[in-house]
């Protein structure tokens, strides 16, 4: 008898009919001889409705109270899913984040999991019950309700699977799995049977929005094998797991794209210690998430820094830089370029294969696409291109690495 | 600096505008130099909406899960009221039933308060905060969410006031206080400045629906003085407290009426030990709440029992009695009479004044009203009359005791 954690998102429990479908699916898994712990989000729309009420009362509602308010969404879902399961004859019981022993730390609305105490869940499982656990919520050391921020329900599912030593954790969603590239862009993109944690992390941070990085990191840290699969059919999805030996045979696992990026370049920065720190500090204080960061010394002896960021942050970044540059680098200039996109090729095979960058750049050159900035990690090569060419670029690179064909 | 508990019902927090009004009222009380703990119900309509969803999933939803579901209503209210208070500059914090230390026992959806642990509330009060406590909810000894059933938010307010040794507990509602009789029936009914717990209990069990008996009993047990007053104005309401010496000067405190009652009489019961117990047992098993119970021996040597109950229970009562009477008393007969109502005159002064029943019966006789059954307690005389005459009866008795005039 396997212990399976199944996570259902807000769309999957968005109506009473869909809740009945979730219950039927959980029962199906149970009828196959498994124990099931399902983790559910708030019904879609509920969280937004609650936020709207909060904003109707206060422009800047307290984050502690937002946590108390928003946690009710998942609490409603667990009770309703448990009722639907009971109506199908399944002995189900709902479990709040607190009851699941999800102990958190960090500021309100952005909780991080500190430790797990699965005692109550284990007790209910020993009694043969099916558990319905509230995603997205936990409890602080002093007993306050805490939510886990974006992607919090995935994180709950991974953490519950880790604490119960579940055999597998299924993330049931509206996509069939992780693809070699977005199938809306690359028609012959292929669903991956498996992908390593590190590759999944690079894909997530490069625009593949299947899961938030921190859930993948948590799974990697605790060795939780999870599967991204469809909530609408019973097809196998993509297993995400620690890399194993034959995984390196594949040079590139997938290609991901991120649109609506911008570049900001500062020239004429005196080449003195501490300059970069103060410039980056000003951007961090303005809560701008930089992606690529390049720096070098130009012919004139001054330093130049280039950053990429979402286009929507460009104005904020310029405003944040002005005072610090006026003080530190009176001769500096800011150049900006919006309308770019990022293409990333990801694969752990890159470590043991040479010529990956060459293949990629040649493929782009062959279709007449100019490369802007380049950044690399051990398992990723990312480039910026003009946004209108990003889909052509993705198809060219996908073809060049033969990603449409299953590896031998 | 007084500590005041203020309880607001679902209508008072039914919209964002009304939540703002509640916040303004709490701030007003605070600005007068008091510490405030407010207890709130779910926004009106929310609980019914949740119950409807539950019934949409299961004909007979689990009571444990109903508790998990319904408790979200109050949790939303406390967060929203706390936000509204913060928006007015009040340092407010929401408190769930669990955080308020409301430890319960009993079956799900019908919790009873076992003990209170106000440690967290005391800590927040010591920090100068204003507390917003969820009504209607507590936590079982093994950590499950528990709701307190009908009138649960009043009970929470009384219990919180008891545990914090509050100076006063205000039950803010849509009536101005407790009246000598329902002002819709008796035009010159008068708001009572005070009433004893015992009188309030007799009024509550006689159709005055201001509060559930168990909240009054809890207040009496722990000596919590509470005030029933309007949420819509700042007029003083009615203080409910332990009787004191000059309260006995008033013979009758108030008159209450209960409509839609029925009488059921069983004749021809053998006069043998244990008969009454088995008949009453059958009715109790059918969950029929009997009100008056009269019993005597008729000329024929057989016993006769008469009961009153809500008309709506009459059919169920007859069905429950048939098998037991067929077995025990084959010569018995059941007579029923619907369309009656009950009039009760309540007052602790009755103990030390004679002639109360005579005054009451003469007043009814003078307007040509026949009296059906009569029952009495130490502080109450109740009679049944034909339902169409109940309002005349109330006015006649109200006049006879001069209840429209404040006592000297």
Describe the protein.
2 copies of one chain form a homodimer. The two termini of chain A are 33 Å apart. In chain A, strands 3-6-2-1-9-11-12-10 form an 8-stranded mixed β-sheet, with helices on both faces. In chain A, strands 14-15-13-16-18-17 form a 6-stranded antiparallel β-sheet. Chain A is built from 11 helices and 18 strands. Chain A has 408 residues and is an alpha/beta fold. The first copy, chain A, has 2 domains: 171 residues, Carbamate kinase (3-Layer(aba) Sandwich); 146 residues, VC0802-like, CATH 3.30.2130. The longest helix of chain A is centred in the N-terminal third of the chain and has 25 residues. In chain A, strand 17 and strand 18 form a beta hairpin. In chain A, helix 1 crosses helix 3, helix 6 runs antiparallel to helix 7 and helix 10 packs across helix 11. At the A-B interface, helix 1, helix 2 and helix 3 of A face helix 1, helix 2 and helix 3 of B.
SSE blueprint:
The structure is a homodimer of 408-residue chains.
Chain A: E1 3-8, H1 16-31, E2 35-40, H2 46-57, H3 63-87, E3 92-95, E4 102-105, E5 112-116, H4 119-126, E6 130-134, E7 137-139, E8 145-147, H5 152-164, E9 168-173, E10 194-196, H6 197-204, H7 213-222, E11 226-230, E12 238-241, E13 254-269, H8 275-285, E14 293-297, E15 303-310, H9 314-328, E16 333-346, H10 356-366, E17 374-377, E18 380-386, H11 390-400
Parallel strand pairs in A: 1-2, 1-9, 2-6, 3-6, 9-11, 10-12
Antiparallel strand pairs in A: 4-5, 7-8, 11-12, 13-15, 13-16, 14-15, 16-18, 17-18
């Amino acid at each position: 008898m396997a212990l399976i954690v199944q996570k259902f998102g807000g769309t999957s429990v968005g109506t009473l009919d869909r809740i009945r479908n979730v219950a039927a699916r959980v029962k199906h898994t149970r009828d196959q001889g498994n124990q099931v712990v399902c983790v559910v989000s708030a019904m879609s729309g509920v969280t937004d409705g609650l936020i709207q009420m909060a904003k109707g009362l206060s422009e800047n509602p307290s984050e502690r109270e937002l946590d108390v308010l928003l946690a009710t969404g998942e609490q409603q879902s667990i009770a309703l899913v448990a009722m639907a399961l009971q109506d199908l004859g399944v002995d189900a019981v709902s479990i709040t984040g607190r009851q699941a022993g999800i102990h958190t730390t960090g500021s309100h609305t952005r909780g991080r999991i500190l430790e797990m105490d699965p005692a109550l869940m284990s007790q209910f499982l020993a009694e043969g019950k099916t558990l319905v656990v509230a995603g997205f919520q936990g409890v602080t050391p002093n007993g306050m309700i805490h939510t886990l921020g974006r992607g919090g329900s995935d994180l709950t599912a991974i953490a519950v699977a880790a604490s119960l030593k579940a055999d597998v954790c299924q993330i049931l969603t509206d996509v069939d799995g992780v693809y070699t590239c977005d199938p809306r862009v690359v028609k012959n993109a292929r669903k991956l049977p498996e992908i390593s944690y590190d590759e999944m992390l690079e894909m997530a941070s490069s625009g593949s929005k299947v899961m938030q990085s921190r859930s993948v990191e948590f799974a990697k840290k605790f060795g939780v094998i999870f599967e991204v699969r469809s909530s609408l059919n019973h097809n196998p999805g993509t297993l995400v797991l620690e890399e194993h030996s034959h995984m390196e045979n594949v040079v590139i696992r997938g290609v991901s794209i991120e649109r609506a990026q911008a570049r900001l370049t500062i020239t004429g920065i005196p080449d003195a210690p501490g300059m970069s720190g103060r410039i980056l500090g000003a951007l961090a204080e303005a809560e701008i998430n930089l992606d690529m960061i390049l720096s070098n010394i130009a012919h004139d002896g001054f330093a130049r820094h280039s950053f990429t960021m979402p286009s929507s942050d460009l104005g904020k970044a310029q405003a944040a830089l002005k005072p610090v540059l006026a003080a530190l680098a009176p001769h500096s200039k800011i150049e900006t370029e919006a309308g770019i996109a990022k293409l990333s090729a990801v694969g752990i095979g890159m470590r043991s294969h040479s010529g990956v960058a060459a293949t990629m750049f040649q493929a782009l050159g062959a279709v007449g696409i100019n490369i802007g900035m380049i950044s690399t990690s051990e398992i990723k090569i990312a480039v910026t291109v003009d946004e209108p060419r990003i889909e052509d670029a993705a198809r060219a690179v996908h073809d060049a690495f033969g990603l449409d064909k299953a590896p031998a």
